[in-house]
Hints:
Blueprint: H1 4-9, E1 16-20, H2 25-36, E2 40-45, H3 61-71, E3 74-79, H4 85-99, E4 104-107, H5 137-164, E5 167-172, H6 184-204, E6 209-215, H7 222-226, H8 237-249, E7 260-262, H9 263-270
Parallel strand pairs: 1-2, 1-4, 2-3, 4-5, 5-6, 6-7
Amino acid sequence: MVTSADLAAAPLASRICLVAGASRGLGRGIARALGEAGATVIVTGRSSEAGPRTDQRPETFEDTAREVEAAGGKGHPYRCDHTQEREVDQLVSWALRRFGRLDCVVDAVWGGNEGYDGDRYPDGSAFGTPFWRRPAARLGQGFESGVYAQLLLAKAVAPAMVQMRKGLIVTVGFDTGAGYLGDVVYDLAKAAMNRLTFAMAQELRPYGVTALGLSPGHVLTERVQDAGMAAETTETPLYAGRAVAALAADPDVNRHAGTVLHVADLARAYGFTDKDGTQPARFTIPD
């Protein structure tokens, strides 16, 4: 029997969650925070202990599953390339066979910075290089690993959520409402992801399913740390993770459908903090 004390300590103890792109970065922080809240968390990615890893980085989704367990949840690793429709469909079919439902699905997939060393991309361009000096292929990579991956995952999970007439789909991106994000590829990809989230919300709302976007600040991810940019960051991935956990536990989350929510605003609304106990303010890109 689950008591009120149990629910307070682990408000997501009965929830089945999936975090896509959880080998590292924001996805890992979100998976860990869901584990803190007691959830069962399926963690996916391409970087595996048993196979190739993105940019030869050391982090793996198996590591993330263990972090979920250590935080108090139940972690289930699953390898998936989220730009491949067949793999995404197989992932969702497996999850539904194994657990019977998906209550919360988080898309933290983003491969637009692969190969970036903190200064240059493999093609020689830098973040913010004028569009007429950027290879057009970079835009394709940003859209494939952002918008296309987002659509594939939502398309795969929506039928089960529509049938249940409930569910939460969170897309991790960045709010473009305040103006230009400083790089043509990044700006276009994030704007398209936000628009897709808005469109999905309109079609899912009548069925009780909520789609929304999440906008973190300048996050201290493993890539950022290794690029020597830690001093410029405002928060850890756990901050965004606790935002997702708060949203997943909110019975009235549908009021946010179609919007892009700032992690800092949610921290003040729901009362959670970052890893160090602080509530970093909303991040804005410097002029």
